[in-house]
Input
Amino acid sequence: MIGVVVLGSTGSIGESTLDVLARHPDRFRLVGLGAHRNAGKLAEQIQRYRPDYAALADLGAARELAARLGDTAPSARLLSGPEGLLELATLPQADCVMAAIVGAAGLPSTLAAARAGKRLLLANKESLVMAGPLLLQAVHAGGAVLLPIDSEHNAIFQCLPPGTGAGETPRGVRRLLLTCSGGPFRDWSAAEIAAATPAAAVAHPNWVMGRKISVDSATLMNKGLELIEACFLFGLTPDRVDIVIHPQSIVHSLVEYVDGSMLAELGSHDMRTPIAHALAWPERMSSGVEFLDLVKTGRLDFRAPDPARFPCLPLAQTAARAGGLTPVALNAANETAVHAFLEGQLNFTGIASVIDKVITRCTAGPIGALEDVLAADSEARCLAHESIEAHMRAGTTVSLGSVGA
Ligand code: NDP
Output
């Protein structure tokens, strides 16, 4: 039995992971579940999946969880605070850790799981964007196995020569092509995009995802973060990773070899495929997804992205080329700006404008240690808040539409 910890269990990737695990009770044992503050959903998951441990990062929510479970609590041991998540990530009973916390908050537990030598299923792309060199060092030092969950990177991993290690430049590869649905505003004019509401931005045409990554998909920052993630995971410079718009989201990404061959992974747009792939690797197991019917799919379209309507993509490309602390600033500015957009404090085009200002002003330079990353992260968040306040004073906010809280 393989012991599994799911960090971010109450989110979209977390729930898909639990769905896949529940299909294979003979193969996996749920060791732990961790989240931030959704005590209601975590209580339901504990009752249903009976993990050995559960943790909430927020102390108040952890108390609420204990109260909700009361005497009916199954035997799960409850942990709390960020250190509770670190304990979950390093439990000796856990062979495998799904890192599916959203944003920079996922970095400490992801690093801890890598240092502890776990099989690390990495959905939390932000930790690679922020601290790629440190995470790869931790993977190598801890003897961890790093498997990408992002559908694009998982597709590339499946198309690479077997045995290619994390961060190792694959043999014979000319370039990678990351596919991108184009998001909900793919065919909108610049004027329509400028007036986009949070409700419209989180309504992704193909994928059901958390709110932050849905906005990232609408700005194309998600693809920019994935470009940086791909450079670290596959040991390539940014000029060897191209982005192609593919509205059907059937081809999940491609690898071009020096002999002219292109290998691609195709499938339904359902995250349970990469999750099941990484859980079972190097074997295969069922995931519950609908099988792809190519005849019904009919056609596959590809086109170049438009940097003028989606300036977050070139900003990320600039950060990828700069390397060092600039991707840290990019990520922190993006998280802060997306949060402000979802709160109605910033309009959609303000997201790129805030990021641009932050990466221009933030301290650049190489990453030496985790302290450098954390300092750059907080500097960038301060600069982003200043820039958002300037936008608010100028009145460039937007109505919330019908988006939930
Ligand atoms: P969701 O917003 O659906 O879920 C986020 C999860 O992270 C929740 O469990 C949340 O807990 C937890 N969380 C948030 N903040 C903290 C914190 N400070 N401490 C501990 N836990 C925290 O996100 P997704 O599942 O969509 O995305 C998760 C990650 O996977 C992201 O990095 C995303 O980029 C990546 N990813 C997602 C894909 C998708 O299809 N959804 C595809 C590819 C990658 P709570 O509910 O208690 O707030």
Observations:
- The domain at 2-149 is CATH 3.40.50.720 (Rossmann fold).
- The mean pLDDT is 95.
- The first strand starts at residue 2 and ends at 7.
